[in-house]
Design a protein that fits this description.
There is one protein chain. 24% of the residues are buried. This protein has helices at 17-25, 48-53, 55-87, 89-101, 104-110, 127-141, 163-169, 181-184, 187-199, 222-225, 234-237, 247-257, and strands at residues 2-3, 11-12, 29-30, 37-40, 45-47, 116-121, 146-147, 172-179, 207-211, 229-231. The protein has a five-stranded parallel β-sheet. Strands 2-4-5 form a three-stranded mixed β-sheet. The protein is built from twelve helices and ten strands. The protein has two domains: 2-66, no CATH class; 104-257, Rossmann fold (3-Layer(aba) Sandwich), CATH 3.40.50.10140. The protein is of the alpha/beta class.
């Protein structure tokens, strides 16, 4: 019995190399002695006999093609990850920092090793009050160590990226947000507030806000509205006066001790 394949459309591709080899090695009787016309991947006409004579070379080419495609795909994925990492490098760095330090147990074990007692987030317009009454009360009267960016504390420097805020907050036990009209309309200040609140997630006692001015509630970022805060009156807002017996300062002192 003879198997008739002559005239059938055959393709000589990587997928059909085993068939070509079989047609010349099988004990089954084939017409034309197993040599048939076939179409290569590039569209050219050849014969199975030519392909069989170059079978080893064809297999190597097929394997090489597969590896080239695989390598190109792998490189493309790797390059994509690099581009994504570069585009969102600050987010990724902050995420790693957050995962490593936001755990309450971790923070409790490291609390004594932290360099600062409190990170103070404020705007330039509130500089005099922060460096006046607030610093005087907390540092000189209560011996707390404040991280104030304008005097070069921590990692925050003019022109540096936002990751510096994360690194600086990570050195502090608490954060105080000095909220004013300028603060709620300042993108950088809002970012500080968001980072601080996210960093101390689950530890709300470590986040405190000081409402230095009356602001429209709808203008205050949602993350700031969710935390406890102190309201400063006209007397407290004075930059040249400090009465530590005022209930405002007593409440702030209590918050720092909690």
């Amino acid at each position: 019995m003879t198997v008739l394949l002559e005239g059938n459309p055959l393709v000589c591709s990587c997928a059909s190399l085993d068939f070509v080899e079989w047609s010349f090695t099988t004990k089954v009787k084939l017409d034309s002695n197993g040599s048939y016309s076939c179409v290569k991947n590039d569209g050219n006409i050849t014969t199975t006999n030519v392909v069989y004579n170059h079978l080893r070379i064809m297999r190597i080419r097929c394997i090489t093609t597969v590896w080239v495609i695989f390598s190109a795909t792998l490189f493309g994925v790797f390059l994509l990850f690099i581009l994504i990492g570069y585009r969102y490098k600050l987010h990724l760095q902050y995420f790693c920092l957050f995962i490593g330090t936001a755990n309450p147990l971790f923070q409790m074990s490291k609390e004594e090793e932290l360099e600062y007692d409190v990170y103070v987030a404020y705007c330039e317009g509130d500089y005099k009050w922060v460096y006046g009454p607030l610093r005087l009360f907390l540092e000189e009267r209560r011996n707390y160590k404040l991280l104030l960016s304008d005097r070069g504390d921590g990692d925050v420097r003019p022109g540096q990226n936002r990751l510096a805020i994360c690194n600086s907050i990570a050195k502090c036990k608490k954060i105080i947000l000095v909220i004013s009209n300028e603060f709620v309309n300042n993108e950088w200040a809002n970012y500080e507030a968001t980072i601080g609140i996210e960093y101390f997630v689950g530890l709300q006692a470590n986040i405190y806000g000081i409402n230095l001015e009356r602001t429209i509630k709808t203008e205050i970022p949602q993350c700031v509205l969710q935390m406890m805060s102190l309201d400063a009156n006209d007397h407290i807002r004075k930059t040249d006066t400090l009465n530590e017996n005022n209930i405002f300062w007593k409440c702030l002192d209590k918050a720092m001790k909690s």
